[in-house]
Every structure is written in structure tokens, then in C-alpha cells.
Amino acid sequence: MYAVILAGGSGTRFWPKSREQFPKQLLKITGQRTMIQNTLDRVSPVIPPENTWVITNENNALETCRQLKTMGFCPSRLLTEPVRRNTAAAIGYSASILSKIDPDAIMAVFPSDHTIAKPEVFCELLQQAKTIATNNHLVTLGIEPITPETGYGYIKRGQAIDNGAFKVNQFVEKPDGATAKRYLEDGGYYWNSGMFVWKAATLLHEIETHLPKLHAQLDALTINTIEAKGKYPYRMFNESGKNIFESLESISIDYGLMEKSNKRVVLPANIGWNDVGAWTALSDISEKDPQSNVIKGNVVAIDSFESIFQGDKRLIAALGLKQIIVVDTPDALLVCSKDHAQNVKKIVEQIKLEKRPEATTSVYEVRPWGSYTVLQREANYQVKHIEVFPGESLSLQSHDHRSEHWTVISGTAQVQVDQTSKTLTRNESIEIPQGSKHRLANPGELPLVIIEVQIGNKLDENDIIRYDDQYGRGPA
User: At 407, which CATH number?
Assistant: First the structure.
């Protein structure tokens, strides 16, 4: 059996922690691992990392590879999309790849940003679903509902078949409150988890029947893939492949296929599932204080109840709040009532219309070599806190519009400026003249931290000319 983890979402309901360039699946929502790391770890008892594929937006490819590399995941099993085209395109493309590797492949599909409280039961169900899928069924894991939830699609079960599964009578769109309550009272309905198990060949046949335009392009997509250059050789499209993928219809696998196929079955799953679809989900999956608050970070809460406080470095002081969400980041602060949590994406849509950078990026940015935080920015200068992981290095680069001054705070820096190489340690500095070719590396075993002061008339990330880069990144 093979796993395909869908990691192409943007996570707009988790703004401002989640941004387009750093979506929810790459965040540590609970615990010490990110959501995608937890997903890989959860499926590995049944499907080993060497049989696991991940598909994500190409902007997130390097960070996804970096997060998964210590878990046995092979970068050549990462597929990238140039644009988002919903789940039908991602799943169809992945199935086409797998069918050429193994014509009899059983394919299990998982979102990358859900939580499951009963992993052992989950693994048992996967084995059960595998058996069912061998009979050419399209198996979906249906979550037994515990509340009249209006935020999920529902599956109505039909006739029982072998191995505890049922034929699907109907896929139902997200209901209103009264309808959801009736579903719960009637029984025989399940939440649609977005987790599937099927033969890749069976799925491709159903795509040919119900999504013929997508099926007609799948062979061309698999032919027009290339290996990325650099440290992480993930799979990406060449220019022809990108054009084909961008031309595909944006449609979900549920709407495009599962609502129409006669091969669909549902396997009931009581696994403690949560799709972590909004900030309010933290109340279900996180520890709470005696006042039923979920608190993380630098927070002091007095006479506040049933609220969610997610702090960063600044102090959040909360007094007399009830059912409020407060999320602080270095460049944006979210304050909303719990009953508006599903509408956080409206804020993202608005700030996109206003072309605010906070919609896509943050003053804290992750890079494959480490991270940086913009501490202060004015018209003609900028100050950054830069951290470089042990053994990693930035690209050999130059800037046409700025000079830089580096001061080492901790660790050891190996600095190249034109033809000169120099080792710097704590409290030592170096000037990087405008136009000079330069590179920063960390040869040590501890993180390297420097303060960078940029001076010039153009201080954005577009003023970078790359000459050599171990991650295969282009000129800017």
C-alpha cells in the first residue's frame, strides 16, 4: 500500500500564524512536531516512508522536504504543483505516477493537517480498508458524528457489505443546523474525513468516466516532470507540464467523482478525528486551564473564560474576556469571537484586495538554510535577525542596491566576500559592500545567529542575484 499526503492547502482560517508562503501543515499547532510530520508519523506503522508520497505547492517544497528528511522521507517522493487546482487534480496526478510504478498499487490518501487521537485504531482501519479496496471499491473513512456539525460534508450509508463497510447512498453538502441535528438523530450519517483508500487503477478508471478532461491530461503530466536541482531532488513540472496543470479545472475529488461513482463505500471510523479547520479546534485538541482557556506563549489571563490565547514574544494581557480568540505574531494581531472563527479567511481575502504583504508573508520567514526576522525597516535601512542551521549555507549572491553589515551574536560564521574567506565568532563583524559576491555559512554544530543591517534604496528579497545555491533556487 502507498500513501499520498495532500499538502497543498493555504490554511487561511489559521491566519495570522498561517500564511500563503507558510501554511498550516508546516506549523506546530499542538506538540513538538508540525502537522505534516504528525501525519507521516501516524501512517508509518502501516505504510513506510519509502512508500509515502507528498504533493504540495512548489513554493513550500523545500521546507516540506526539510521537515520530513529526518523521518525517512525521500525528497524524490515529493510532487509539486505550480498552482492550486483542488484535490481531483492532485489525486489524479499522484495516482497516475503510482500506477506506472506499480500497476496493482493500493493508494491511501490523507490530508496533511488533521489530528487523530486514536492512532492504533486508525492503523487497524487502514488494513481493513486495504482489503475492501482490493475488490475495486473506492473506500472513504466516515467519521461517526458526535455533534450536529455544520462545517463538514456528510455521507449517508446504504447497504452493508463485507468487512464492516457500507455502500454509500449519498454524499451531502454541508447542512444547516436543523438538518445536521436531524442527521445525528436519524443515524446512518458520517462526517466526510477526506481520507480515502482505493486501487490506483480503479480510481483512474473512475476519473476517465466522470472527469474525462482531467484523465486525458494525466499521461502528459507524468511525462513532463523533472527532478529539481539542488539538495532536495523533488519532482516538479517542466514548462509544458506547468501549462497543462494550470489549464486543469479546479474541482474537488468529492464533487467531481465521489458524488457520482457507483463504486464508493464508507468505512465507519471512530478514531478521535479533528480536521483542525479553524482556531476553535484548539479547544477540542489542546489542554485547557481551569477556566477552559487554551493558552500558549507569553500570556497573562485574568477573569477570562473559554478563550484561545496564542502569544508570541510580546505579552498578551487578557482581562474579562469570554469566548474570544487572540493570536499574536510579530507583524499581525488577530482578535475575534469564537463564533466568527470560520470567517477568518474573509480577513485574508480583504488584506489581499488591499495588497498587504501580511496575507502571504511574515516578518518571520523560514528558509531551507534557517530563518530570518525583520526587526526594523525604514525607507533606507533594514535590520534582520538571521539564524543558520548547523552545516547549512546561504547562496553565493550579490545585491545591486544595498550593502550589508553582519555581526555574529552566537555560533561560528564562515563568510566569503568576493575572493576572500573569513571565519567569524561572537561579537565579530564584517562589511559586505554593494555589488560584492558573498556567502554566509555555518560550519559549526550549533545554530549561527547574526544581526544584519542593510543600507540602500531597495531592501526587498528581489534584490538578490544568485550564482550558486545548494537548494537549486533561481536568481531571486
Answer: 2.60.120.10
Q: 125 CB contacts (<8 Å, ≥6 apart)? A: 141, 267, 269, 271
> Residue 269 is part of which domain span?
2-274
Radius of gyration of the chain, Cα coordinates, nearest whole angstrom: 24
Residues 96 and 210 both lie in one domain: yes
Q: Residue 99: pLDDT above 60?
A: yes
Do 103 and 53 lie in one domain? The reply is: yes
Q: What share of the chain is helix, strand, coil (3-state, %, to 5)?
A: 30, 35, 35
Please report whether residue 335 resides in a domain: yes
28-54: string of b/e by CB count within 10 Å (b at 16+)?
ebbeeebbbbbbbebbbebbebebbbb
pTM exceeds 0.85 = yes
Average pLDDT over residues 213-228: 97
The verdict on 331 and 388 lying in the same domain is: no
* Residues 387, 335 share a domain: no
57 close to 81: Cβ distance less than 8 angstroms: yes
Residues 110 and 214 in one domain: yes
One domain for residues 372 and 396? yes
The yes-or-no verdict on residue 58 having pLDDT over 60 is yes
- Residue 412 CA, chain-centre distance (Å), reads 32
Cβ–Cβ contacts within 10 Å for residue 379, how many?
Answer: 7
Q: What is the mean pLDDT of residues 291-310?
A: 97
**CA-CA distance, 148 to 171, in Å (whole number)?**
16
Q: What percent of the chain has pLDDT above 90?
A: 91
Among residues 97, 365, 140, 333, which one has the least CA distance to residue 236? 97
With CA atoms as reference, report the closest residue to 36 among 44, 22, 24, 50. 24
Among 294, 315, 348, the domain-final residue is: 348
Cα distance between residue 109 and residue 91, in whole Å: 8
Mean pLDDT to the nearest integer, 383-403: 97
DSSP string, 387-428: EE-TT-BPPEEE-SSEEEEEEEEES-EEEEETTEEEEE-TT-
Answer yes or no: do 342 and 372 share one domain.
no
Would you say residue 356 lies in a domain? no
CA dist 440 and 262 (Å) reads 58
Q: 157: domain CATH number? A: 3.90.550.10
Contacts of 281 (CB under 8 A, 6+ apart): 274, 275
Choose the final residue of a domain: 274, 306, 334: 274
| Cβ-based neighbour number of residue 406 at 10 Å | 21
Predicted pLDDT at 473: 87
